[in-house]
Design goal:
Neuraminidase; mainly beta
Length: 295
Amino acid sequence: MKNKWTFAINALVLFVYTIALHAQWSTDPTVNNAICSTTNNQYTPKIVSDGAGGAIITWQDEGDIYAQRINASGIVEWTADGVAVCTAKNSQYSPTIVSDGAGGAIITWDDYRNYYSEDISTDIYAQRINTSGVVEWTADGVAICTATSSQHSPTIVSDGAGGAIITWYDYRSGGYDIYAQRINASGIVEWTADGVAICTATAHQYNPTIVTDGAGGAIITWYDYRSGGYDIYAQRINASGIVEWRRRILNIHPPSSATVPAGLLLRGMTPAAAIPTSTHSAFAAMERLAATVHL
């Protein structure tokens, strides 16, 4: 009888404990689930799936970068108030994050560690953190770009092989341009040092965003002031760091005054498929063909 009661009590305790584990998500909108509530201020959280029903969250913590994992039951899994991703000197800002495909994540950010004048200010760094909350690359991050002047606002996408492709806007040439870099799963940068030029047109280009092309490369888009007003352009870069669209850019939103010569042909098109002289129908044809035809 005693053994039966012991078994029943143990089963009840296990049942209550299991319910508690599955009830960690707060149902009170005035309470919620704390990811980091330590002293000082935390800003700009970004989030990605952990691949198991939970998430990995990164944020700016005063002038440093931290991260935390929360599981599907609402329980934080790493060090209380987050794991330090970068605590280098000066300040780090605006982290962004992508899954590493193995339950961890790759994080990139703006970094002021090398700041000492107006000519040398923000750089781009990145770090990988695994599913257990252990940082895997060089302490305080791997340099993605430390070129002269400023680099800003990195965005990131998986390369499909445990690494990532990162893009940013860059003032090294005296005007803001668009650059990109690939970093592999081991934390080694794979393309040209300090990044491959995506767009170096006149005037300024800003705030790139990025998506995978499904083949180890990426497609990047940004807003662009080359015409004296803001337009939208795009470019594809392959897994080897080679820009693929031969016109260098595709103008998705051309100026209203744009004209197209009569009978203009795209390589691989027959005369019957010539781009029409109507401005809007011409650019519509370009947009449909740009992904498969080199301009």
